[in-house]
Design a protein that fits this description.
heterodimer; A: alpha/beta; Aspartate Aminotransferase, domain 1; Aspartate Aminotransferase, domain 2; 2 domains; two-stranded parallel ribbon; 13 strands; 45% helix; 13% strand; globular; B: seven-stranded mixed beta sheet; two-stranded parallel sheet; transferase (chain A)
């Protein structure tokens, strides 16, 4: 009798590009290799950085005897949820004062997107939104697609965003897609420091985007993973989100504290919900609680505690802002140095976009052959899209990287 | 507070932030129906009587009535907080490798043939529910690929009320029950259980509790497992084992995991959802694990890649704090001994409470059978009280049980034991 297998012959799923890149980098023996792939902050020594304020707060937590060790409520730590929402919407947000802002503590930014997506699929526009179009920018963080499709949305589409030729925002295309899409479509918007292009709309451009979205009844789902990290200023990086709220949108904002707190491994996220009124908010949260209950049930406490204690103590809060500025400034420094070196080398092309772009990532604009050259010949690992993580640059490797880019651009067409 | 008029011509930009410009959203969202457990919790919270007793909580409560943190865990957390080698890296989506290795070993035993032959996948998850969810998503994935399986999933009657929702959220709609707890026998009725599983369609999934069944506390004996595994094999069913409180049942990691090891030693494919929250007192830290034992190691990498894909659209990666603590303890023999000592203390206390409660009920002359109290192990036990009697307890005596009449033994202590025993007695003897 042939043996019975319950588990069928399963095909191998495609590897995630960015992690494959890091794997290849790790296996590379070349002494001067550089990893410009994965999106995490690195110091000038190329090391991950535990924020000093986080170290401090971790000690406070570990020595606090009064902390209870119970399961967190399903929606998360209440003080975390409210202080996290305040950070993105502003302390004096009228929406908060009107009691129509609530939140769900989630497993990182991904978890926040997941809960928001699951809710929208069930309740957004009628009770079955599997056919409701979800628009994500072209390009976008590749996981956006996966989160929304696995939540049951069958129609995840790109909206025009990056103009490769002029290396900037394709505003006309973006607005065009906003005008022509089906009413009630959902748009995933990057609050700041767009991943992977580093190119954000200006305030004037955001105003235009908001106007069309309001008029055409489109849903704004913000993804805010870099608040503070992009410009060094929490307020500046939250401008778009706050503008939409003041314009009267009911909307979601998925927040991640992985990068601006360096808490990558503690999975600290928050789904902020701006509802029509307090009653609506209550109903939305009650349904989200049910969704959380069958996903992870109770979120982990450690990261949320660290963030809460930091945000709610004036002293620690200022210290955190300083730490965030440190990270943002190092990135800005690398940007200006890289551009200066390329200009000094006389590398063909314009390189203004490197300093015009913002946040961790930069779309260098190198073509696939040039990218391959960098990876294979120079052991400099970057995404096939030409995205580089500025944090991978250090004062020690920046010359090598600049020279290599110069080589790639001049030798490889 | 007035709202600006909302005509489609207006730009919808208002100065004071009133959401007047947009079409009303989510107005069809109803308040989610309240689960019986939630209703209970809110009733307990609203109860202003000083003498209220909550026996429906999920955690292990110490004699002082608080969720218990193990001394060793406190020590290790302090150590880890000053460890300069710990880096805030993104863990892999499948979790910390050392953690999954240890979690796999404690479930299967270090020298399990399945581990040796590379047929085992371990995935760290943010808690027990997440582990069940991931398992359900994998089953759904396999279901899509295989022409043979069409559900359903069988859950014990009773079981954790969130289980059905988890499988349905993963896309497996058909959920059925198999007979488990018998009120009259105050235990498992194997005959009827086997009947239900005999009539299950081939390829069904059966969710079985490895130890410390929630909420009844009634576990299958080894000989009962032998019968069940024979049935599972002959009917080509798929076992999904639950191990949420390993070591808290018998005080012994291995004994509590015996059913998992037994199935694996028979060469069965299985999933097992584990939690380390209870046995390490790490409730708020979401330390879970999904174990997957396969028959052919050729599908190991593909299944791993699927799990990776699923995780990335659920929570991307698990949180590491709690997992570090668990790994540190399980990897160090001195820590292990200390930890086992604390766990033994927890288990002995629960056993003592069960014995004393049984004795009190006997002395009061409470009708019914109470042997099962001391025959079962773990945190929970089923009193066999019916719905009316449970309500009597909450309304008239302020003693809150789970809706099905089950209670958390550790929430009983020297201060409330007499009152609880009296209350149970009254519930069974007053004419209702």
């Amino acid at each position: 009798m042939s043996q019975f297998f319950w588990v069928p012959e399963v095909p191998q799923a495609a590897p995630v590009a960015v992690f494959k890149l890091t794997q290849d980098f790790n296996n590379d023996q070349f002494p001067n290799k550089v990893n410009l792939g994965v999106g995490a902050y690195r110091t000038d020594e190329g090391q991950p950085w535990v924020l000093p304020v986080v170290k401090k707060v971790e000690k406070i937590i570990v020595h606090d005897d009064r902390l209870n060790h119970e399961y967190l409520p399903i929606l998360g730590l209440p003080e975390f949820r409210s202080s996290a929402s305040k950070i993105v919407l502003g302390d004096n947000s009228p929406a908060i004062q009107e009691n129509r802002v609530g939140a769900v503590q989630c497993l990182g930014g991904t978890g926040a997107l997941k809960i928001g997506a699951e809710f929208l699929r069930r309740f957004y526009n009628g009770s079955n939104n599997t056919k409701t179009p979800i628009y994500v920018s072209a390009p976008t963080w590749e996981n956006h697609n996966a989160v929304f499709s696995s939540a049951g949305f069958e129609d995840v589409r790109p909206y025009r965003y990056w103009d490769a030729e002029k290396r900037g925002l394709d505003l006309a295309g973006f607005l065009g897609d906003l005008e022509s899409c089906p009413e009630h479509s959902v748009f995933v918007l990057h609050a700041c420091a767009h991943n992977p292009t580093g190119t954000d709309p200006t305030q004037e451009q955001w105003k235009q985007i908001a106007e069309v979205m309001m008029r055409r009844k489109l849903f704004a789902f913000f993804d805010s993973a870099y608040q503070g990290f992009a410009s060094g200023s929490l307020e500046k990086d939250a401008w778009a989100v706050r503008y939409f709220v003041s314009s009267g949108f009911e909307m979601f904002c998925a927040q991640s504290f992985s990068k601006n707190f360096g808490l990558y491994n503690e999975r600290v996220g928050n789904l902020t919900v701006v509802a029509r009124d307090a009653d609506n908010l209550k109903r939305v949260l009650s349904q989200m609680e049910k969704i959380v209950r069958i996903t992870w049930s109770n979120p982990p406490s450690q990261g949320a505690r660290i963030v809460t204690i930091t945000l709610t103590s004036p002293e620690l809060f200022s210290e955190w802002q300083e730490n965030v500025k440190t990270m943002a400034n190092r990135v800005l420094l690398m940007r200006s140095q890289l551009k200066a070196k390329l200009q000094a080398l006389g590398t063909p092309g314009t390189w203004d976009h490197i300093t015009n772009q913002i946040g961790m990532f930069s779309f260098t604009g190198l073509n696939p052959k040039q990218v391959e050259y960098l990876v294979k010949e120079k052991h400099i690992y970057l995404m096939a899209s030409s995205r580089i993580n500025m944090c991978g640059l250090t004062t020690k490797n920046i010359d090598y990287v600049a020279e290599s880019i110069h080589e790639a651009v001049t030798k490889v067409q | 507070m007035s709202r600006p008029g909302s005509s489609p011509d207006e730009k919808g930009v208002s100065q004071n932030g009133d959401p007047g410009g947009q079409c009303p959203l989510f107005t069809n969202t109803l308040n989610a129906p309240v689960s019986p457990e939630t209703r209970l919790l809110s009733a307990f919270a609203r109860d202003t009587q000083a003498r209220k007793v909550d026996l429906a909580g999920r955690e292990y409560y110490s004699e002082e009535g608080k969720p218990f943190e193990l001394r060793l865990v406190g020590k290790i957390k302090q150590q880890l907080s000053t460890d300069p080698t710990l880096h805030p890296e993104y863990p892999s989506s499948l979790g910390l490798r050392e953690f999954t290795r240890k979690a796999t070993e404690v479930a299967l035993g270090k020298h399990s043939r399945a581990i040796v032959e590379n047929q085992v996948l371990g995935v760290q998850t943010p808690g027990f529910t997440a582990a069940v969810r991931l398992g359900a998503e994998l089953l759904r994935c396999w279901y899509d690929l295989s022409a043979d399986w069409c559900g359903p999933v069988y859950l014990s009657s009773p079981c954790d009320d969130s289980l059905a929702g988890i499988f349905q959220a993963a896309g497996i709609q058909e959920i059925r029950e198999y007979y488990y707890w018998d009120d009259k026998q105050r235990g498992i009725c194997l005959e009827r259980l086997l009947e239900d599983l005999e009539s299950a369609p081939e390829h069904s999934v059966v969710v079985l509790s490895a130890s410390a069944h929630y909420p009844t506390g009634a576990d299958l004996s080894q000989s009962q497992w032998a019968v069940i595994t024979r049935l599972i094999t002959s009917r080509r069913l798929f076992p999904f084992l639950l191990l949420p409180t390993q070591a808290l049942c018998c005080g012994d990691m291995e004994r509590d995991a015996w059913p998992v090891q037994h199935c694996a030693s028979l060469g069965m494919e299985l999933l097992c959802a584990q939690s380390f929250s209870h046995c390490f007192g790490l409730y708020g830290e979401a330390v879970g694990h999904l174990l997957c034992v396969l028959k052919q190691n050729s599908v190991l990498l593909p299944v791993q890649s699927q799990a990776d894909k699923i995780v990335r659209s659920l929570w991307a990666r698990p949180s590491v704090g709690g997992a570090h603590v668990v790994t540190t303890v399980l990897s160090n023999s001195a820590h292990l001994v200390e930890w086992q000592g604390e766990v033994k203390h927890i288990v002995e206390r629960c056993m003592l409470i069960r014995a004393i409660l049984r004795e009190k009920l006997r002395l009061l002359g409470t009708p019914g059978r109470w042997d099962h109290l001391t025959q079962q192990g773990g945190l929970f036990c089923c009193t066999g009280l019916n719905g009316e009697q449970v309500e009597f307890l909450s309304n008239r005596r302020r003693v809150y049980l789970l809706p099905g009449g089950c209670l958390n033994v550790s929430a009983i202590n020297c201060r409330n034991l007499d009152y609880i025993a009296e209350s149970i007695h009254l519930a069974l003897t007053s004419s209702l």
